[in-house]
Design goal:
The protein has 129 residues and is α+β, with helices and mostly antiparallel strands. The chain is built from 1 helix and 9 strands. It has one domain: tt1808, chain A (Alpha-Beta Complex). The strands form 2 sheets. It has a 6-stranded mixed sheet with strand order 1-4-6-7-8-9, covered by helices on one side. Strands 3-2-5 form a 3-stranded mixed sheet, with no helix packed on it. Strand 7 and strand 8 form a beta hairpin. The two termini are 20 Å apart.
């Protein structure tokens, strides 16, 4: 069972990795929760992933919330995860399983899950943990 402080530590660790990557490659920015992501305003589908990356080309979707799909979301799973439909609305989602010490990478296309595996990340040259 993952403690809250352990989850926070993992979230911050992945955030630092994304931040370092984004600075070196001048490719975008990482964002930590709490920051609302409005995936579908009409259906009131709003999520708050632990961590997300938004590319420089798409930075216009960030306001006081994110208006659309981030390039990458990272969700550090608790024993009872509640990510809802997040994985179906973004290009890639990392599910960090603290108890198993592994990461499931879910890649998506056209609002459908394309694959569940460790694969090349949505962010070029950024290694999957």
């Amino acid at each position: 069972m993952a403690s809250s402080s352990h989850r926070e530590g993992e979230r911050e660790r992945h955030g630092r990795r994304l931040n370092a990557y984004a600075r070196v490659h001048d490719s975008g920015r990482e964002w930590l929760s709490p920051l609302d992501v409005v995936l579908d305003e009409a259906r009131a589908l709003v999520v708050q992933p632990d961590l997300m990356f938004i590319s420089k080309e798409r930075e216009s979707i960030v306001h006081d919330h994110v208006d659309g799909e981030p390039d990458l979301v990272v969700e550090v799973l608790s024993p009872n995860p509640r990510i809802g439909k997040t994985e179906e609305r973004v290009r890639e989602c990392w599910l960090v399983h603290l108890d198993r010490r592994d990461v499931t990478v879910i890649t998506c296309a056209n609002s459908r899950i394309r694959a569940r595996r460790v694969s090349e990340p949505a962010i070029p040259r950024f290694p999957v943990p």
